[in-house]
Write a structure and sequence with these properties.
Protein name: Ribose-phosphate pyrophosphokinase N-terminal domain-containing protein
Bound molecules: 1-O-pyrophosphono-5-O-phosphono-alpha-D-ribofuranose
Distance between the termini: 25 Å
Organism: Artemia franciscana
Number of strands: 14
GO molecular function: ATP binding; magnesium ion binding; ribose phosphate diphosphokinase activity
Order of helices and strands: EHEEEHEHEEHEHEHEEHEHEHEH
Keywords: Nucleotide biosynthesis
Strand content: 15-25%
Largest sheet: 7 strands, mixed
Family: Belongs to the ribose-phosphate pyrophosphokinase family.
Oligomer: single chain
Helix content: 25-40%
Number of helices: 10
């Protein structure tokens, strides 16, 4: 990779993923800028940037982790500190953009997050595999939504023996387009799973202010709007459309969170004769009990990139593998900094990725 050539940028990072930030800086032939980001005893976030950023192009590498609210505050305060110290441009490098999964009912938090980031001083955002591409429209600055698919496709070709006898699986109809786009590039067939795999409220971990019990359809009917209630027993059964018998099944998605939906899908695939089951996704959030669930499941491997740190989860589960996307992020920074076209980075991706 050629070097940065138009005035050295400053690469800063908060506490979300130092390892990734260091890898990116090293690839660019730079050192991380001296900044300390810490929390006072009252939990307020403090930022000290040691060197002057006046007139500089600053890149702040900060991803979303399980410490998500601190991740966001650190980024906002760092960006604001750079803005008020007269940085020329401030690029937020946010590999996993938090709050991008929209909850059914409730406000669109990603719009609020985008507005706060722009107000704090970000002049450009680099992110990866947005859960909804439309989120880019919430930002009042340019957004480059990089894709992990070329890296994941390469992993399949190099690390899954007999991948030519595999079928790419969409674990729900919503991910069918993504599965098709992977399948076409690998010249494989697809299968689509239909049916309820997890409760829509399964990501609630804190009981305070949680919605009243009962499923959402029931509540809608109680106030006299909408269709008759569907009870848990009446949920559509899991159905696999496509032939997976005697094949390797590879599920592709944007993120693996608490993993429940993938485990349920894997069981359906196993029942129908798939003999090896892989899950590939960009973001390995691997929340809650995910490592144990994967370990005990019929999934053979979960392959994610290092947009989100997951070393602890790997200690608990030997089936989790990591693909390094630091080279992609470094190349995006280099191109933006040198005012070069980004199209090269999108050469082998499709709109559906
Ligand atoms: O918690 P896990 O079981 O690991 O699930 C992760 C899934 O959640 C997200 O989709 P979501 O269910 O939010 O559906 P959506 O596409 O309707 O937003 C994401 O795209 C994965 O498919």
């Amino acid at each position: 990779m050629s070097r940065i050539n138009s005035g050295e940028p400053v690469i800063l990072t908060g506490n979300s993923h130092k390892e990734l930030a260091e890898k990116v800086a090293t690839r660019l032939g730079l050192k991380l800028g001296a900044a300390s980001v810490y929390h006072k005893t009252n939990r307020e976030t403090m930022v000290d940037i040691a060197d002057s950023v006046r007139g500089k192009d600053v890149y702040i590498i900060q991803t979303g982790t399980k410490d998500v609210n601190n991740n966001i505050m650190e980024l906002l305060i760092m960006a604001y500190a750079c803005k008020t110290s007269s940085a020329r441009s401030i690029v937020g490098v946010i590999p996993y953009l938090p709050y991008s999964k929209m909850r059914k009912r409730g406000c669109i938090v990603s719009k609020l997050v985008a507005k706060m980031m722009c107000r704090s001083g970000l002049t450009h955002v680099i992110t990866m595999d947005l859960h909804q591409k439309e989120i880019q429209g919430f930002f009042d600055c340019p957004v480059d939504n990089l894709r992990a698919s070329p890296f994941l496709l390469q992993y399949i070709q190099e690390n899954i023996p007999n991948f030519k006898s595999a079928v790419i699986v969409a674990k729900d109809p919503a991910s069918a387009k993504k599965a098709t786009s992977y399948a076409e590039r690998l010249r494989l067939g697809i299968a689509v799973i239909h049916g309820e795999q997890k409760d829509s409220e399964s990501d609630l971990v804190d009981g305070r202010n949680s919605p009243p019990p009962g499923n959402s359809r029931q509540r809608i009917t109680e106030v006299g709007v909408g269709m008759p209630p569907l009870t848990a027993k009446e949920k559509p059964p899991i159905n696999v459309v496509g032939d997976v018998a005697g094949r390797i099944a590879i599920m592709v998605d944007d993120m693996v969170d608490d993993v429940n939906s993938f485990v349920a899908a894997a069981e359906a695939l196993k029942e129908r004769g798939a003999y090896r089951i892989y899950v590939l996704a960009c973001h390995g959030l691997l929340s809650l009990d995910a490592p144990r669930l994967i370990e005990e499941s019929c999934i053979d491997e979960v392959v994610v990139t290092n947009t989100v740190p997951h070393d602890m989860q790997k200690l608990q589960c030997h089936k989790i593998k990591t693909v390094d996307i630091a080279p992609l992020i470094a190349e995006a920074i280099r191109r933006i900094h040198n005012n070069e076209s980004m199209s090269y980075l999108f050469a082998n991706v499709t709109l559906e990725d």
